[in-house]
Every structure is written in structure tokens, then in C-alpha cells.
Amino acid sequence: MKVFTICGITNSGKTTTTERVIAELIARGYKVGSVKHIHCDKFKMDPDVKEDTGRHRIAGSQIITAHARRETSVMFARRLPTDKLLSLYQGEVDWVVCEGVSDIPLPTIVTAHKEEDLVQKWNNHVFCISGVISFAMTEYRGKPVFSAKRDIVQLVDFIENNVGEWGKH
Prior knowledge:
With 169 residues, the protein is of the alpha/beta class. The protein has helices at 14-27, 52-59, 82-87, 115-121, 152-162; strands spanning 2-8, 32-36, 63-67, 72-76, 95-99, 108-111, 126-130, 139-140, 143-144.
């Protein structure tokens, strides 16, 4: 399984890049999973205690599973470490595309509006750049810049060639 993350400044193209990369990977025949980091402290999957899963949580269940005819949703009543979360995908998908995940070292695509945003988000794991800034530059610090809107094939080619198996550095 190969894993990478797309991180950047608000409204810089993270979600657009994420959804287009996922669609292109699927078009190439891969099974793809995704992880979206939620920055809102008050976010809950089941805030309505009238729903059974909410009632299970209130009763104290630590892991709640909604097992429906066409979907299985598992909720942990705590934040899982990202590496533990990713291990749940092992054997299920070929790729995991993360959006906004920055708490563990993963190959990183940075999205930005301007160069100052790149400086703010830069780390040793950045392997390319995308987002709004792709209309202003083609390279930064030796890393290529791709537009997810016009260069998606080239971007995913680059991802395939530069992201290795997760956990094997």
C-alpha cells in the first residue's frame, strides 16, 4: 500500500487536488482509500443522540460500528494515531490519499497560493507542489509544480514514480 499526503494553506487547492488524484488513480485501476484531517475541534460523526450510534457513544462504547446493507462505518470514541489508522487500510486498498495529515512523516504534496505559503508548509518530505500556485510557477526548490486541473495525468505519473510502499523507507 502506498500513502502520501496533500497539505497546504486554506483554499489553496488541497481538496481539488485530492479528489482529482483519487479519480485518476481509480481510472488507472487502483483501489483507493482516503483520510481527511478535520481541523474543527467540535466535529463528531454522530452528534445527534437520537441516532443509535450516538446513543451507543453516550453509553460509553469505545468503538461503534454502523453495519448497514451497503456500508460499514466504524467510529472510535478517541483520536487514533495516524499510523494505527493507516494500518486499518492495509490489504484493503493500493493507495491511501491523505488530505491535511501532517502528524507523521509521509511523502507530501504542498498546495499554496504564493511562495510564502510554500515556505510555511515546507519540510523534507515534500516531493512536489500543486494548487493555486501552479498557475504562477513550474518548479520550486527543485521540486516540480503540477496543476491538478490541467496536468492530472502528469501529476499522477509523478506520484506513481515517487511514492514507495508505506512503512518501507
